[in-house]
Amino acid sequence: MSEIINKYIDPLSDFGFKHLFGAEPNKDIMIEFLNALFDGQKEITDIVYSPTEYAGDEKEYRKVYF
């Protein structure tokens, strides 16, 4: 059985969207995407990324993702 290796990332998948838009190095891509959505109604000039994972104090609250 051969493994299928894709050359491109699907931006509609959860992994693809997070990879393309969810990290500081790709901030400019996210800003352009948001500005295209607002279509001139608003203009985003900067965004701040917050941590998406919270390692809770107790065992049952560890690995919470936002």
From TrEMBL:
<dbReference type="Pfam" id="PF12784">
    <property type="entry name" value="PDDEXK_2"/>
</dbReference>
<protein>
    <recommendedName>
        <fullName>PD-(D/E)XK nuclease-like transposase</fullName>
    </recommendedName>
</protein>
